[in-house]
Every structure is written in C-alpha cells, then in structure tokens.
TrEMBL record, chain A:
The keyword Metal-binding does not apply. This is Carbohydrate ABC transporter substrate-binding protein (CUT1 family). SUPFAM superfamilies: Periplasmic binding protein-like II (SSF53850). Pfam families: SBP_bac_1. The keyword Signal applies.
TrEMBL record, chain B:
Belongs to the binding-protein-dependent transport system permease family. This is Carbohydrate ABC transporter membrane protein 1 (CUT1 family). It is a multi-pass membrane protein. SUPFAM superfamilies: MetI-like. PANTHER family: BLL4140 PROTEIN, DIACETYLCHITOBIOSE UPTAKE SYSTEM PERMEASE PROTEIN DASB.
Length: 480, 301
C-alpha cells in the first residue's frame, strides 16, 4: 500500500484551496437567485424597524396561504442600500423588497430592478386614486407597486415627556406652537433641571435637513426642499429658511439644546428621548413607535404637538409629494405572482391594524388611526397631519420624462442639514450667503441634469418645475 | 539536478503560489483596476449602464472644496498623530524594555489590548464615554467646575479628540516595533558605557538614539501610512462631522459611494484613485526608508 507523501498532501490542499476560491467567485449563470419558486422560498427584505415583529409574524402566517415559505429579513436603513447593491450585482435579489434604493422608477425599470405587479381588484378598490401615479408607481400603464403610507405625515412634530413637562409646570397636552412660547417652555424645563430639547443634527444631517424643510414650509416658504412651486426656482436663501435656522441658533446659544445634539444621529437623539434623558424631541410621526421599540416604558409619558410656526396664529401647513411604491417585486423573482400576492396582503385589515399599532408612518387610510388602540399622542399627530399636510405639485407628475432628469441629479453638499450643523457650531458665519450658494449649486445641478437628459432625447424643460396655479393650503391636482 | 527535476520543482513552486496569486488578484488587484475604470465612468452602482465620461469625474473632484477639505483634514490628522505615536511609544518602549521593571509582561499586554479590540466598538464606546450631557468624562469635569465639554461635537475639539483616541488605540503596535528595535541593541554596549561612567542621558544620546535611527525612519513611514486608513474609528466617532471638520478622505469617498441618495461611484472612485496616489507616494517613501535604514545599519556595522 502506498501512503500519501507530504508533497502530494500539500498539492491536494492547494487544489482544494483553488477549487474553493474559484467556487466562491462563481459565475453569474450559476449564482442566479434561488429564491422564489426554485426552492419554494419567497425572500422578503425591508428596512422598517417598527414593523420588524409584525413582518416576522406576517411572513409566518402568509406562508401556508401562499403555499411557499416566506422568509422575512430586516435590514437597518443605513445598510439596506449597500445590501441591495451587492445583491443586485450578484443576482441574489430578494423576491420582495422595500423601496430604499432611491432611484426614480424609470431607472429601476431600465436597470431590471423591478417586475410588474398585478393587484387583485378587491385590494385595488381599497387604494385611493392618488396612490397610482404615472412615473412614480407606474410606467407606460404598467403597475410596479403601490404606497402603503399616507403622504399626510410629518418629520417635524414636537414630542414631549409628560413627566418632565409637568415637573417644570408646563401642560404637556398643550404644547406651544410658536417659536417664542416654545422657547419659553424650554427655558422652564432648563430651570427645573431638565435637559430641554434634543434634535438629530449630526450624522449626515439628513434628518435636520428634512425638518428645516418642513419648518420653512410652515414658516411660509411656498415650495419644497428649496424649490418654489410657482416659479420653479431654487430659493434656499428665502427668509423662511433663514428664520428657521436663526431660531435653532438662538435655542443653541441659550443652551436649550442638549449638548452633543450636534453630533447625534436619529437613533442617538431618540434614545435620549425614549430613556427620559431629555424633555422634548422634534421627530417624525413615527417617534411613538420608534421610542416604544427602544424603551417601552416611554409610551405612557408620550405627548405631542404640531410643527412649530414663527408666530402664533400662523397656519402650520406643509406639502408633500405623491408617495412612491412601498414595496417592489424583484425583476429576478422566480415567482412574481406569489410575490405580488404577498404585497397585496399588506392591504388586508389584519396587516393594516398591525401597522397602525406599530405607530410608525400612518397608513393610507388615516381614519383607521382614530379607532385604533394607540396612544393619544400618536392620534393627535396623525390628526394634525390630516388637516395640515397637503399634496404638492411635482414636475414628475406634470411630465413623467422628468424622471430621466432626476436620475442624473447629483448630491449637492453642503446641504441644508450640513449648513445648520455648521451654523450652530460656528463654522459658518454668513448664513444667508451660504444658503444662496446652496440655491445656486442646486440650480446648476438641475441645469446639468436637464442638459444631459435633453441630449439623450428626453422632452423636458425648466418650465416643468413651475406651477403658477398653485395655491397654499390645498391639495394640488388631487384626484376627484 | 536534471532538467526534468528543475521543471518539476518550478511547477510545484507555481502550484503553491496559485492560491496567493488568485486571492490577491481577486481581492486586491481586481478592485484597484476596477476603481480606475469606475473613475472614468458615470455610474450609480444600481444601473446596468456605465457611461464613459473620460476625466470628468477627476475635474469634479478637483473642483470640489470639500475634497480639498478632506485632503487637508487627512494630512492634519497625520501631523497630529504621527509625532505623538512615534515619540511617546519610544519613551514607553524604553521603560518597558528595562529588565528591572516588575510585571513587565502584564504592562506590555495592557498597552497592547486596545490594538486587538475592534476599532468600531471603540468608536461607539468612546461616544458614550465622551457624551457631553451624561458621559463620565463630562460628569467629572462638571464636578471639577469646568462644565461639560462636547469633545466630538465641537469643531475645534473633534479632530484632536479623535487623534488622541487613535494614538491610544494603536499605541501598542508602535510600541512593539520599538521594543523589537531596542532589543537589537547589544546589552554589552550599555554595560561598557556604564563602566566608562556614562549616565542615563548619555546612554540615550550616544547609544540608544544612534542605534535606533534606521528604525526611526521605517517606523515613522509605516505609521504615516497607517494613519491614512482610519475610516472605522473616525466614522463611528464623528461620521466626519461636525460640518466636515473630521471628514478624512476615506469618509469623503464613502459619502459619495454609499451615503448619497443616488450613489456616484465614478466620483468616489476618482477620489479613491487620487487618494491611492497619495498612499503610493508614502509607499515609495517607505521603500526609501527601508533602503535608507539598511544603509544606515550597514554603516553602523
């Protein structure tokens, strides 16, 4: 019998290592998605932290009725984009995934990210007509998904801790609405030895950017994210923006904002609020669900107020666009019909009830909230949104070809959130000049995207962004 | 040796090299080449289309003040960190090299523990420790009457604070380099000098320092290169803030590649290529350092 020599053993090891290495790299033809029908599994990924338990349970309950094993995976929103990038390049996309990629629908369709979906008639009848928009949820008449959340929501409500406010002699059920009264209330919290307010100013500044955009609207800016509806021109240097940021600067200089907020991401700030370390937090309508997930005991201490306005009596009106699809079916899905049925099941009464109880973004049918078993602070926030958040005009609705321009837009930095961080921290001295630079840079970016889109054959123009017939305090172009 | 056996031996050499060549090729060479290609295209990483745009991404990177800001921050961070790391660790290594010091093994391990701790975890934990509202450092400072200090949120303090933490985190690595270098100095030299009446200062000036000169060059160049790769600590500590005051080039690249709503991989790759060239210059210095070190050691012999 001939034994294995040292050399032959090492040689075999080398071949095994090479085999493993080449096996790992794999070719695309071998590594196509095995989800869907191939193995009887339907993969479902999303980034909704408040719905994690709801969706885990829903996957289990839907598996028998869909006759396939529904596997739900939650991804942190900040990591989801990278996960999808890698999955798409490796042909490992899940069958159903949440809309976190950020590309306009035409780019998703041309990039083979999404599959057309068919929604049963009974589900379609539950959805408002505004839920289907050419260029946003459908393209050339083909439907690629539907929104599950109402556009009547806000990132910028005032959330207070009832115990802290009561201790400071303030009424938590009557949160001030104007800047001066709010600042006085924060001063009383400070006098009572309570950290008055926190905001998520840090990380990439994305949350404070959204909040300053909202507060500028409530302060009278007739547009969205610097873009004026009637003229179609960018005006971040509008007095409304300057006023909002100066107000935040005042709060900071009077030491009414919790130290460290300049470096806080959303979760950092919300954790301080949920743990009772601070009396007030400006956050979205989803703060109730998000805080509950972090510290369940906060639920009994939650109270809320509307978005702040500069002076008492001003209308706290805000404007948002038509919502995009919440979920997509992957173009690679081996079982798009079943994937479509899973998405349709999210409109069932049971799932909608679970959604409302998670107190995240409100559902399409806001009336479900009033009759639900959720805290009053959440109901109050939804009620504010229902009355004060309106549908805004959008270039992409006027001309779906604008999606080709959107796909060519590039990030403009520093954005409003960065500017707030820089101004509060002392890096920026001339606020108005910095905002003017942002207006100019954003206009220049749109111009380059328009030029490229036109060169590629898109019929678009700057006029697509102007809506001379827009009126404040109304839904623009809502379906009758 | 016959021609057949030479061929066989060469074949075996190549067979043993294959795993390294394959893995190095796939995980190092390919990404470098790919990033050069990506720097010449406009691509968001999602779309199948990669539009060739020539040097346009480079032009945009060079025209972006925030790129130059990140370049400046990276170099300033290096200037803060390298002298502290190289000189302080030399002093500590000299103390820990003393055969008379008790608990020498324990002390060396203690200084090395931060090196083996995950950098991102250190970043997260330090954010709690340095929290200006409730962290233990600020609480202690407040009790001493100084008030809470926002170490990571203040535009003037954030980078120096990150530098101090970086030096502490990697102190042990440089210390080990120095310990190894110190142990190359023959003990007999010190003994002979002491017999001749040399004091501690003279020993350091006339024996330790000249003998360590070749190592000083190599260790400095290695440390300079290491400070360019600090993404994990800086990202978890400050994310590049406040207002880009700690945005090193690696965070700048990450922001364009992954944090943008529509990622700009072309722009990020162009910045990465320029950053790579900077590192390559330092790498060339490193080679020169190794060469100069060898020459110096040769002269000393």
């Amino acid at each position: 019998m001939t034994g294995m020599t040292r050399r032959s053993l090492l040689g075999a090891s080398v071949f095994a290592a090479v085999g493993a290495a080449t096996g790992c790299s794999g070719s695309s033809s071998q590594s196509g998605s095995t989800s869907g029908g191939a193995t009887g599994t339907l993969d479902w990924w999303d980034h909704f932290s408040s719905f994690k338990h709801l969706n885990d349970d829903w996957a289990k309950t839907q598996s028998p009725s869909l006759k396939t094993n529904v596997a739900h995976t939650y991804y942190d929103a900040s990591k989801a984009t990278q996960a999808f990038q890698l999955a798409h390049q490796a042909n490992k996309m899940p069958d159903v995934y949440s809309n976190v990629i950020g590309l306009p629908l035409p780019a998703l369709v041309s990039g083979k990210w999404v599959h057309e979906v068919t929604i049963p008639a009974d589900i379609k009848s539950k959805l408002p007509k505004d839920a289907f928009t050419e260029g946003i949820t459908q393209l050339d008449g083909k439907l690629y998904g539907f929104p599950m959340f109402s556009f009547r929501q806000s990132s910028t409500l005032v959330w207070v801790n009832k115990d802290h406010w009561s201790k400071a002699g303030l009424d938590p059920n009557n949160v001030p609405t104007d800047y001066a009264a709010f600042k006085d209330a924060l001063g009383k919290l400070k006098s009572a030895g309570i950290q008055p307010l926190t905001l998520a100013i840090g990380a990439d500044g994305g949350r404070i950017r959204d909040q300053v955009d909202d507060m500028a609207q409530a302060a009278g800016f007739p547009g969205y994210q610097g873009l004026q509806f009637t003229t179609g021109e960018y005006a971040y240097h509008h007095d409304a923006y300057v006023g909002v940021i100066e107000f935040l600067k005042q709060l900071n200089e009077d030491k009414l904002i919790m130290p460290g907020s300049n470096n806080f991401g959303v979760v950092d700030a919300r954790t301080r609020y949920a743990s009772g370390a601070v009396g007030t937090f400006i956050d979205g309508i989803w703060c109730a669900g998000g805080s509950k997930a972090l510290a369940p005991t906060i639920v009994d201490k939650l109270a809320s107020g509307q978005i702040l306005v500069p002076t008492s009596g001003m209308n706290p009106w805000c404007y948002r666009g038509r919502p995009a699809a919440t979920y997509f079916v992957s173009a690679d899905s081996k079982n798009p019909d079943v994937a479509g049925k899973l998405i349709a099941s999210f409109m069932s009464d049971d799932y909608q009830k679970g959604m409302v109880e998670a107190m995240d973004q409100p559902p399409l049918n806001l009336d479900l909230v009033a009759s639900s078993n959720v805290v009053d602070a959440y109901k109050k926030g939804v009620e504010y949104c229902k009355k004060n958040v309106f549908l805004m005009p959008q270039a992409i609705v006027k001309n779906p070809a604008i999606a080709r321009v959107d796909a060519l837009r590039k990030p403009v930095t520093p954005h409003v959130g960065n500017i707030v961080q820089g101004y509060l921290g002392g890096s920026i001295k001339d606020l108005k000049a910095e905002l003017k630079k942002l207006s100019d840079a954003t206009s220049a970016d749109r111009a380059q995207a328009l030029t490229k889109a036109k060169a590629a054959g898109a019929k678009v123009s700057e006029a697509d962004y102007a809506f001379s017939d827009w009126k404040p305090g109304q839904d623009y172009g809502a379906a009758k | 040796m016959t021609g057949r056996s030479v061929r066989l031996r060469t074949t075996w050499i190549w067979i043993f090299l294959v795993p390294t060549v394959v893995l190095y090729g796939v995980y190092t060479i390919y990404p470098i080449i790919a990033s050069y290609w990506y720097s010449l295209v406009e691509w968001n990483g999602f779309d199948a289309d990669q539009k060739f745009v020539g040097l346009s991404n480079y032009r945009e990177v060079f025209a972006d003040p925030l790129f130059w800001n990140s370049f400046k921050v990276t170099l300033f961070f290096m200037l803060l960190v390298v002298p502290a790391r190289v000189l302080l660790t030399l002093l500590l290594a000299m103390v820990l090299n003393s055969p008379k010091l008790p608990l020498i093994g324990l002390l060396r391990s203690a200084f090395f523990i931060p090196v083996v701790t995950t950098t991102a975890i250190i970043g997260v934990v330090m954010r709690f420790i340095l929290d200006p509202a409730s962290g233990p450092v600020s609480t202690a400072l407040t009790k001493l009457g100084f008030g809470g200090v926002d170490f990571l949120g203040d535009q003037h303090l954030a980078l120096p604070t990150a530098a101090v933490l970086y030096v502490w985190k990697f102190f042990g690595v440089t210390m080990i380099y120095w310990l190894a270098a110190l142990q190359t100095i023959p003990y007999e030299l010190y003994e002979a000098a002491r017999i001749d009446g040399a004091g501690t200062g003279q020993l350091f000036r006339h024996i330790t320092l000249p003998m360590l000169k070749p190592f000083l060059i190599i260790i400095t160049v290695l440390t300079v290169e290491e400070t360019f790769h600090n993404f994990d600590l800086m990202y978890t500590l400050t994310g590049g803030g406040p207002y880009f005051h700690t945005e090193i080039i690696e965070i700048y690249i990450y922001r364009w590649a992954f944090a943008a709503s529509i990622p700009q991989l072309g722009h990020a790759s162009a910045a990465a290529v320029i950053f790579g060239l900077l590192v390559a210059v330092v790498g060339a210095l490193q080679l020169w350092g190794v060469y100069a070190g060898r020459r110096l050691r040769g002269d000393q012999r």
